[in-house]
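As a warm-up, study this chain.
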Amino acid sequence: MNRLCYPTRLALVTLGFGMLAGTAAAQPDWRARPQTSATLESGFTPDPHVIEVRAGGSDRNAISGNGCAGYINNAQPTVNLTYTAGRGRLVIYVRADEDTTLLVNDASGNWHCSDDFEGSNPAIILDNPASGQYNIWVGTYTQDGAGLPATVYISERVPRR
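Now compare it with the structure written out below.
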């Protein structure tokens, strides 16, 4: 009969708990079909491009970092933006009657979060953005599966605070 020594058993138990903990917080699915989508090329008009959405969801934002908070729908981005970049910046911001958060997976696969850029409205400013797909989630601070009305603005100018 094979017996594992105590340190080996402890390592296996710790590994097992780590695997369980890793499955508890699902990552947002950037490959999923979004609520809506947009295709824009640098220099687009009108600027900003405006999209009405339903914010929030029942999943806690599992991405860690400054401004990463709130509840989103992990199974569905709020907006997928296909963007052809130029020489400027790309600005994504949200306005709503309630406190919202913003999560963006950029064209290079990097995660960006924002909360409270302009009052309780979030914004993400990307200097020299890459061309490609940007997955956008608009979150809320309450776990709300039905969603809160919000407006996503896509611009090449920084909004006034």
